[in-house]
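Example 9 (inverse folding). The structure is encoded as follows.
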């Protein structure tokens, strides 16, 4: 069995541009005929559901919390790195790409990281359009700070609550599409299984956590944006809902699971086990 990463051919600096240039597009008048399910309404899920709704697709969004505002994305507080070169210190797409690969201990998939660096500036613009109150300098420009050992200052942030403000921005966009009728929101619903037809995901089985009823929902495509899985480890600062159940369900149906080492925890999780342990960890 071989993993097909679907990475297009070509030089790393142009492969995604070439791929996009030759994609088969869905005409705007055909989009309302296509149903898409999004499982999870954190930063990824809420942004995906809102964007797809804005493009004209019919979207069903599911979260097991009372509201998308309760997603665990709220806990991501550091900031977002983007190659906008606001500090005029020589930043570029390549430098962000290189720093991110290095920061991932050279284990990340290079083509995907380069694509992330390419769209990083657009991500900041989208967040600003959603109303995220990023910190600004005295002249009114978006401010940057150095974060994560990067070569340049490129981290966009909102005080010490970047994740919360990003989530509220994504939730606002999602709520607008719900109000327009393009997105149906299913709060307090837990995905129990994914439905495959001819090898493709065509729906989900969900439990209504209020009534206990099992529901089936069909779609032309299913997006799983169910978040991290820190609680697979004995000690974790993640919310109890970060427990890999949705990812495990789709893995059992044939989806591949890669890079389980990329899990973020806080040093407060690490028990004191000797005098050689760093003081930062002992004090946290």
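The amino acid assigned to each position is listed next.
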């Amino acid at each position: 069995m071989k993993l097909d990463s679907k990475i297009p051919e070509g030089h790393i600096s142009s492969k995604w541009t070439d791929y996009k240039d030759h994609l088969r597009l869905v005409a705007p008048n055909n989009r309302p005929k296509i149903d898409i399910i999004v499982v999870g309404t954190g930063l990824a899920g809420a942004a995906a559901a809102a964007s797809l709704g804005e493009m004209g697709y019919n979207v069903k969004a599911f979260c097991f919390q009372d509201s998308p505002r309760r997603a665990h994305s709220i806990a991501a507080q550091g900031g977002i790195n983007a190659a906008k070169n606001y500090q005029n210190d020589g930043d570029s797409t390549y430098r962000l790409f290189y720093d991110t690969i290095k920061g991932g201990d050279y284990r990340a998939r290079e083509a995907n990281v380069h694509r992330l660096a390419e769209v990083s500036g657009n991500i900041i613009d989208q967040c600003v359009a959603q109303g995220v109150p990023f910190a600004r300098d005295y002249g009114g420009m978006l401010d940057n700070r150095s974060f994560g050992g990067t070569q340049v200052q490129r981290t966009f942030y909102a005080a010490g609550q970047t994740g919360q403000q990003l989530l509220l921005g994504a939730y606002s966009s999602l709520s607008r599409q719900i109000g327009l009728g393009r997105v149906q929101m299913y709060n307090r619903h837990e995905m129990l299984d994914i439905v495959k037809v001819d090898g493709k995901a065509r729906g989900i089985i969900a439990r209504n956590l209020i009534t206990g009823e099992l529901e089936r929902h069909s779609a032309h495509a299913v997006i799983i944006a169910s978040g991290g899985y820190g609680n697979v480890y004995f000690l974790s600062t993640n919310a109890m809902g970060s427990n890999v159940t949705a990812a495990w369900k789709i893995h059992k149906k044939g989806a591949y699971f890669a890079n389980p080492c990329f899990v973020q925890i806080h040093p407060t999780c690490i028990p004191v086990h000797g005098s050689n342990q760093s003081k930062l960890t002992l004090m946290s």
